[in-house]
């Protein structure tokens, strides 16, 4: 079974037509795809993707949304959620990695923790036996550790993200309305190389969805960026602090009902600038590719409010011991909505304290991934994701990249991988030219602060 899952998860091209990418596509949906692709100001779309949702999937999603939007998050300061023990037993029974450990221990806190390194070593061993491999999909993530990772997923799992974004929006009094012949969401990137595509969302009556890259190289005319966004009039614009910083510089007139920031930490100053410019709430969602949307920041609650009813959150100390409410440590999660990748005591590598606003569990003082830019000697800025892409083909297990206040660069590699330094520096040359890159030995054993900078202007603020 593991070998068959590995083959199913092997990355390959799309190779499909619209009927295969969108099994329930109507004529209205076709018109929307044509509008997104063929608008005179449209970008150069580099990729193709689709929802791959069948009629049966949509029926299951409607039931999932109905149950999830009304379900409370049952993390409590004095115990484990009622569903957790059955989840542990099922996971140990159906998932090869955990089954190999023998029977589950008597206490949940005796379970060993897992990390991104475990998933990267053999993701197929974390996929349950019962998952049909003919519907498996995958996507690659580099993240903030040095462990490239394929995530096992499914069309229904990908579509479930919308439910948790609806839950987050509802907290701010927003219920999505855009449907047929309207654009629901535009996803923004700002990278030298970015996966871009168009799609429709059948759960919202085939409203349009576009993933675009604001980097000028993806446009026939850089001025088309503002023209295209204004023409689409999306209900929601999603991105990260770096793409939103670029958006602020564009002469757009669009008025979305909300901006949704994911993937990186959003500074209060940038949130205020965005709210002032676009006159709408800006949601800072703590999300991971392995887990999906975990929490949304709410100043009224004093932190990030948990979103998933079936995600158990612990805070652990460096020795792996659970900490009481209010004490700061590493965020560790169990459960989740991805039935292709059930997680048990998964170390996120992020830090915070779990507290309670009444019965509402809140992560306070979240320290996640920070958005960073790097500058070359010609004065050009590069997103840290561009560095991830440049180094993607160098087989390093982990690395850290730092720019000093004077602009000097340092790449730190694991002790046994210093022989890869020349290849890594050569891969970075298209970004930094002939600028010297010092090589150092990486001291961290697992999770590292992959990107750091002391250069003024490196952080999006």
From TrEMBL:
This is Phenylacetate-CoA ligase. Residues 216-336 form the AMP-dependent synthetase/ligase domain. It comes from Panacagrimonas perspica. SUPFAM superfamilies: Acetyl-CoA synthetase-like. InterPro entries: AMP-dep_synth/lig_dom (IPR000873), ANL_N_sf (IPR042099), CapK_Type1_Caps_Biosynth (IPR053158). Keywords: Ligase. GO terms for molecular function: ligase activity. Signal peptide: none annotated. The lineage of its organism: Bacteria, Pseudomonadati, Pseudomonadota, Gammaproteobacteria, Nevskiales.
């Amino acid at each position: 079974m593991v070998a068959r899952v590995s083959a199913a998860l092997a990355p390959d091209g799309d190779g499909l037509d619209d009927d295969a990418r969108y099994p329930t596509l109507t004529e209205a949906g076709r018109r929307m795809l044509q509008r997104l692709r063929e608008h005179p100001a449209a970008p150069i779309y580099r990729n193709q993707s689709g929802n791959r949702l069948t009629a049966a999937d949509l029926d299951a999603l409607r039931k999932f949304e109905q149950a999830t939007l009304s379900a409370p998050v049952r993390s409590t300061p004095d115990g484990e959620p009622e569903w957790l023990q059955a989840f542990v037993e099922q996971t140990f029974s159906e998932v090869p990695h955990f089954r190999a450990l023998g029977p589950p221990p008597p206490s949940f806190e005796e379970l060993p923790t897992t990390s991104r390194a475990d998933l990267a070593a053999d993701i197929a061993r974390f996929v349950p036996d019962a998952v049909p491999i003919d519907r498996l999909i995958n996507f690659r993530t580099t993240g903030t550790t040095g462990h490239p990772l394929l995530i096992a997923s499914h069309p229904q799992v990908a579509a479930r993200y919308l439910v948790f974004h609806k839950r987050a929006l509802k907290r701010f009094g927003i219920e999505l309305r855009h449907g047929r012949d309207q654009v629901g969401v535009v996803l923004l990137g700002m990278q030298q190389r970015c996966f871009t595509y168009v799609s429709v969302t059948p759960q919202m009556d085939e409203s349009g969805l576009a993933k675009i890259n604001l980097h000028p190289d993806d446009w026939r005319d850089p001025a088309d960026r503002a023209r295209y966004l204004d023409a689409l009039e999306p209900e929601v614009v999603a991105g990260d602090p770096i793409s939103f910083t670029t958006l602020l510089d564009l002469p757009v007139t669009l008025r979305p009902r909300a901006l949704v920031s994911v993937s990186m930490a959003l500074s209060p100053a940038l949130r205020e600038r965005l709210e002032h410019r676009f006159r709408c709430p800006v949601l800072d969602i703590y999300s991971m590719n392995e887990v999906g949307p975990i929490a949304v920041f709410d100043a009224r609650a004093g932190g990030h409010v948990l979103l998933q009813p079936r995600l158990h959150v612990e805070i652990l100390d460096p020795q792996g011991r659970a900490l009481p409410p209010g004490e700061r440590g590493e965020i560790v999660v169990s459960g989740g909505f991805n039935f292709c990748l059930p997680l048990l005591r998964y170390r996120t590598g992020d830090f915070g304290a779990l507290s309670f606003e009444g019965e509402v569990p809140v992560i306070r003082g979240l320290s996640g991934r920070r958005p960073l830019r790097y500058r070359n000697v010609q004065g050009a800025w590069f997103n840290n994701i561009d560095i991830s892409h440049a180094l993607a083909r160098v087989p390093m297990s982990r690395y850290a990249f730092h720019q000093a206040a004077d602009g000097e660069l340092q790449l730190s590699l694991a002790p046994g991988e210093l022989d890869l330094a020349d290849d890594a520096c050569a891969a970075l040359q298209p970004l930094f030219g002939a600028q010297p890159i010092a090589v150092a030995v990486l001291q961290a054993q697992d999770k590292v602060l992959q990107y750091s900078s002391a250069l003024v202007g490196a952080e999006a603020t």
